[in-house]
Amino acid sequence: MDQKYDVLIVGGGPGGVAAAYICHKLGLSHLLIESGKAIFQGIANTYPEGKNVYPSKPKENPEPFLVEELRPPDKPVTVEKYIQYVQHFVQHEGLNVLTDTQFENIEDGREYLKVLTSRGTFQAKRVLLAFGSSIPKELSVYGDAKMVAKGLDDPKKYIGVRTLVIGGGNSAADVIISILKEKRNANDTEPVYWAHVAETFDVNKETAQRLGEEILLGGNIRLLPGATPRIGEVDDEGVDRLVIRVSEDKIPGGIERYHAMSFPMKNVIACIGSQGPTSIYDRIGVQTIACAEGVCQVAKEGDRLLLLTSDFESTRKGVYVIGGAISPSYMRINKGAIQEERHPNLIYTAVNDAHHVIDAIAAKLKK
Ligand SMILES: Cc1cc2nc3c(=O)[nH]c(=O)nc-3n(C[C@H](O)[C@H](O)[C@H](O)COP(=O)(O)OP(=O)(O)OC[C@H]3O[C@@H](n4cnc5c(N)ncnc54)[C@H](O)[C@@H]3O)c2cc1C
Known about the structure:
It comes from Citrifermentans bemidjiense (strain ATCC BAA-1014 / DSM 16622 / JCM 12645 / Bem) (Geobacter bemidjiensis). Keywords: Flavoprotein, Oxidoreductase. This protein has 367 residues and is of the alpha/beta class. Helices cover 24% and strands 31% of the residues. A hairpin with a 2-residue loop joins β7 and β8. The chain starts with a strand and ends with a helix.
C-alpha cells in the first residue's frame, strides 16, 4: 500500500523546508522529497563556493520573514554555513524528508493525489511543488538515461573510477575540478573523461585557470570533443550503461563507421544546463498562459506563466506551486480577473509563500 500524507512537498529548498516545518508545527502529516543527496541541494549546486547569503527582501513587500528560523542572518554567512545550519534544523525538528527522490508526475485518485517518484508512489491530499527555477536538462538518448547524475553531490564517490562528465561549459568544468582535487588527495590516477557535443569547450578565464592548475598538479583528464551521448541500455550483467559516440566518419555505400565508449551510468555526470519548469507543468497538466503584447510588465511577450489563485493553487485541484518555480512572475486569478504578479526569486519569497500555502491548506483540511 502507498504511504499517505496530508501534504507532499516536492523540493528541499527554502520553500520546501519552510512548508515541511509549518506542516510539522500545525500537525499536518507531510513528506518532503528532494532529488539531490541532501536538503538545499539546489542552493549547494548553484551558489559559488564561499558566497555570502543575504536576507534580501523586496522593497515593495512590507511582510516580515514569516519563518524566522530560516531567515539568513543579518551579518551575512557563507552559503556552506547557512546550508549546514538548515540541515541541522531539519534534523532537530524531525521533519520527514526523503532525499535522492525525483518527482515525476501526479495522477488523480479518489480522495488522494498519487505522486509518482523515482522511489515509487506516495499519496497525499495536497501536493506542493517547490522545485525552484532551475531544472537540470535530461540527456536525450535512445532508451533511458535517468540514472545519470545531473550534478556533483559527493566527489569522493568518483575516487578509483573512470568518470565521464558531459557538457562544455563552466559547470562541467567545475565538477571536473572538484573530482580531480579529490582524486589527487587520494592518489587516484584513474582519468576523468570530459565530453562535449561541440568541437570546442567554452569556459571563462577564471575556471580555465583553476582547471589548468589541477592538470599541472597531475590531474588526469581526457578530452572528448565532438562526442554524442546515444543510447541508455542495460548490459548482460544488469548494469545501466551510457553509450557515447566519440568519433564517426561516413564511408561509401551509406555506411557509418564510429567509435563509441560505454560507461556505467553511475560513473556519468551530465552538466548540460538547466531549463525553466514549463515542461514539468505541461507534463502534469497545470495551465499556463502566454503573455500577449503589452499585457506583462515582468515577463516577455510569448513567455508562458503559471495560472494560480491567491493561495498559490494551480488549475489542477490540490496542486500548489511556490518559490523560485513561479519566479520572476506568474498570473494571479483574483475575483475573476487575471493579472501578472511580480514574484522575485528570493529566499524570503519562497519561505513566505510556503507559510501562506500551508496555512490555507490547514484551514481547508480542518474544515
Ligand atoms: C548564485 C545565487 C545567489 C543567490 N543569493 C541569494 C541571497 O543571498 N539571498 C536570497 O534571498 N536569495 C538568493 N538567491 C536566490 C535564492 O537562492 C532562491 O530564491 C531560493 O533558493 C528559491 O527557493 P526554492 O525553495 O523556491 O527553490 P530552490 O532553492 O531551487 O530549491 C528547489 C529544490 O528542489 C529540488 N528539485 C528540483 N527538481 C526536483 C524534482 N523533480 N524532484 C525532487 N526535487 C527536485 C532541487 O534539488 C532543490 O533542492 C540566489 C540565487 C543564486 C543562483
